[in-house]
């Protein structure tokens, strides 16, 4: 394996990949196989969550990739599900070749949970039932992940947020945005913002983790300050035109918390803030603005959202996003058609992000070819001291879609959300 540079080191360069969302039932882990064959110079891999999925067997599962039992609730259930996922030979090879820095999102326990609050319609609806389930999920996660003893769960509690320094080139703050968050306002799907989404009481990280993040970034001497976290930080209004629709499970349901974080990047002159995100099964690039409602406002950082290893982004949703692009000018790129991984190459002068895709088939974007190679979908560069990304490879994202396609896709989007 590899280790980070020693204290006081000043490395010239770093190469790593980040991944997320690997629903076993939606196809083969071709992305891991391609990474293992094509990217052997990587220093490490960051996994941003949804390492397993809790659901029972799906009728639409790719043949040979069905889950091994009903929805998981007990410790034995979670252990068996981790064992199933770890049986994949391509993922085994990726783990053999690369150190993994990991954090969880929701599906390691249950879709869209928030702190001790279960998903709507949960099989474990009470606080007591859910915390017992969360303890089981966290325990199995710890047993199966490369984690330090400091992250060993204590019942339903697990300290997962932590920091890694790659010399003075990059600092990585790895967040937990599930265990300490307040409940999603106005439901946990796509909707107009209600007053709760704007409340100062809404938190994605909890106050202690927020202080820890700001203190660490405020002291950082690194050239690049990278936050590795789960759901999309940038604003995105999914409804084209005068009406609006935001994903309440993302930071769009936690507007004041986002303003505090981005405002901190600005006021504290954090060197080159970069945010890495998973969750939404698609690739995006955003300018992080001090005011997303004003496209002329200051850009203080960049967010790179990586696509999933396998988890679906149904094709019917793509025109919804493309149709709303003109109303979201801070969004530089979107691709929902590919599964894959994201490669990052950084040195003292620039941070290069390359979106790598593997071919998909079916309306669910399933990965049906286990030995597929990855190809470059797009690449973006952030220059040292100049926040915001510039595309250097790939085709620009369409910024319009047929109205009928947009309307049909939006109806599907608002009826279903289980990123």
UniProtKB/TrEMBL annotation:
Residues 387-419 are annotated as: Disordered. It comes from uncultured Rubrobacteraceae bacterium. Residues 405-419 have a biased composition (Basic and acidic residues). Pfam families: PhoD. Residues 16-351 form the PhoD-like phosphatase metallophosphatase domain. This is Phosphodiesterase/alkaline phosphatase D. InterPro entries: Metallo-depent_PP-like (IPR029052), PhoD-like_MPP (IPR018946), PhoD-like_sf (IPR038607), Phospholipid_Metab_Enz (IPR052900). Transmembrane segments: none annotated. The lineage of its organism: Bacteria, Bacillati, Actinomycetota, Rubrobacteria, Rubrobacterales. Residues 392-403 have a biased composition (Polar residues).
């Amino acid at each position: 394996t590899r280790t980070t540079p020693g204290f006081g080191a000043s490395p010239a360069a770093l190469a790593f990949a980040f991944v997320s969302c690997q629903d076993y039932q939606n196809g083969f882990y071709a992305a891991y196989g391609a990474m293992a064959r094509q990217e052997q110079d990587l220093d490490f891999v960051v996994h941003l969550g949804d390492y397993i999925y809790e659901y029972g067997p799906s009728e639409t599962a790719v043949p040979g990739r069905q889950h091994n039992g009903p929805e998981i609730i007990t410790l034995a259930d979670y252990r068996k599900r981790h064992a199933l996922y770890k049986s994949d030979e391509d993922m085994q090879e990726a783990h053999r070749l690369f150190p993994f820095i990991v954090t969880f999102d929701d599906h390691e326990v249950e879709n869209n949970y928030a702190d001790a609050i279960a998903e709507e319609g949960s099989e474990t609806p009470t606080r007591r039932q859910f915390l017992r389930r969360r303890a089981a999920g966290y325990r199995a996660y710890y047993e199966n992940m490369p984690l330090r003893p400091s992250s060993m769960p204590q019942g339903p509690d697990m300290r997962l947020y932590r920091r890694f320094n790659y010399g003075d080139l990059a600092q990585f703050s790895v967040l937990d945005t599930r265990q300490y968050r307040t409940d999603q306002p106005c439901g946990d799907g796509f909707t107009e913002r209600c007053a709760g989404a704007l409340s100062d009481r809404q938190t994605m990280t909890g106050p202690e983790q927020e202080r820890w993040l700001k203190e660490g970034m405020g002291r950082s001497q690194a050239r690049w300050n990278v936050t590795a976290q789960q759901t999309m930080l940038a604003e995105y209004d999914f409804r084209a035109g005068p009406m609006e629709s935001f994903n309440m499970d993302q930071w769009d349901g936690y507007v004041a918390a986002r303003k505090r974080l981005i405002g901190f990047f600005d006021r504290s002159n954090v060197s080159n803030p970069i945010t890495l995100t998973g969750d939404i099964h698609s690739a995006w690039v955003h300018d992080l603005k001090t005011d997303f409602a004003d496209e002329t406002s200051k850009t203080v950082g960049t967010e790179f959202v990586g696509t999933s290893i396998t988890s679906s982004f149904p094709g019917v949703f793509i025109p919804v996003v493309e149709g709303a692009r003109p109303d979201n000018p801070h969004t530089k790129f979107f691709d929902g058609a590919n599964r894959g991984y994201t490669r990052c190459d950084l040195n003292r002068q620039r941070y290069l992000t390359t979106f790598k895709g593997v071919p998909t088939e079916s309306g669910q974007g399933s990965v049906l070819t286990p030995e597929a190679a990855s190809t470059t979908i797009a690449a973006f560069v952030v220059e040292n001291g100049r926040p915001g990304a510039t595309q250097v490879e790939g085709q620009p994202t369409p910024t319009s879609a047929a109205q009928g396609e947009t309307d049909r896709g939006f109806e599907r989007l608002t009826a279903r959300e289980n990123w």
